[in-house]
Amino acid sequence: MRRAMAEAEVGDDVLDGDPTVLRLQARVAQLLGKHSALYFPTGTMANQAALWLLGEPGTEVYCHDDSHIVNWELAGTAALVGLQVRLVRGSPVMDADALRAAFRPHSVHAPRASLVCAENTHNGAGGMVTSLDRLRAIQATAAEAGLPLHLDGARLWNASVATGTPLADFAACASTVMVSFSKGLGAPVGACLVGDEVPMRRAWEVRKRFGGGMRQSGILAAAALHGLDHHLPRMHEDHRRARMLAAAVVNVPGVSVVAPDTNIVMLDLLAGQQASQVVAKAREAGVWVSAWTNTRVRAVLHLDVDDAGVARAGAVLAEALA
Ligand SMILES: Cc1ncc(COP(=O)(O)O)c(C=O)c1O
User: 123 in ligand 1 pocket by Cβ < 6 Å?
Assistant: First the structure.
């Protein structure tokens, strides 16, 4: 990947286009079956740009209560876009019934909504996949209310690999989709916002306004292209190793393991233990996991962890948890 970056053909993407960025955008738009794609420095910026493109200031966006947009984007919805979040609760990932239950009855005193956001895979739910049927039902429910859908697909690659569902089938449910290159694909930074013709018309403008215009960004886009060529075909390995890790700790008393759909393993501590203590103990033994909440530990499998590494991580974690 470093070599591909060093050898990338570059131009000026703020001025008149960078050839490697253009190649990446065309490839991703084609993979997702959408009109066009625009390269962003981060997934967060691309999500916020989508909210700006599809949402209307002074209205509501329906989001799952444990979504990245709600918990980890520093209230950009409010600060950058002027949207109020209406939380969709009641299931580990959004579904059509939970979305419908969150709809407000019409009233001149109540805020209108302007869009719905879904996340696939769902980080907070442990990399859980929203199946194509479920996503179609969400889209149909949103459409009944006249609302477009934005899909935070930072890990849509994982959802597609785990289910065999083509990326384009997932993407067809949404007006805009964000996909990230800096997670399972292993690039240092970067994401694309991919979408239908109408919302994408102003995507370049909002990226520039948010400070996301980059010049010789082909150096970064080359990393993303390398990830698509070399790391997407091996992503199923991360899912297999996540199952290995889950199996290594599933019988530890006082721990409930969320069975992994993809590359994330969530461990819920039932016996009063603090996640920060488990994280510290594992780290002393050279295994890095994080505290998702006070009682939930998150472990992520990725291309730098091989079979021997996951076996060692499983043994260390089992001891730290016990
Ligand atoms: C589901 C989800 N969406 C968006 C992002 C943001 O991506 P970035 O770190 O590139 O801003 C992340 C990052 O972890 C994520 O997990």
Answer: yes
pLDDT at 237: 98
- Which residues have C-beta within 8 Å of that of residue 116, sequence separation ≥ 6? 61, 62, 63, 99, 138, 142, 147, 148, 149, 150
Q: What is the mean pLDDT of residues 254-276?
A: 95
Hey, which of 130, 180, 263 would you mutate to test ligand 1's pocket, going by the most ligand atoms within 8 Å of its Cβ?
180
Residue 266 has a CB neighbour count (10 Å cut-off) of 23
List of residues 6+ apart from 289 with CB closer than 8 A:
278, 279, 282, 283, 297, 298, 299, 317
Residue 191 CB–ligand 1 contact under 6 Å: yes
> How remote is the CA of residue 145 from the centroid of ligand 1, in Å?
28
Count CA atoms within 13 Å of residue 200 on its CB side: 19
In short, whether 130's Cβ falls inside 6 Å of ligand 1 is: no
Q: Between the CA of residue 43 and those of 82, 89, 113, 180, 241, what are the distances in Å?
A: 19, 24, 23, 6, 25
Q: Which atom of ligand 1 lies closest to the CA of 152?
A: 3
Give the predicted TM-score (pTM) of the model: 0.97
- The answer to whether 114 and 96 are in contact (CB under 8 A) is no
Q: Could you tell me the domains of the chain?
A: 2-232 (3.40.640.10), 234-321 (3.90.1150.10)
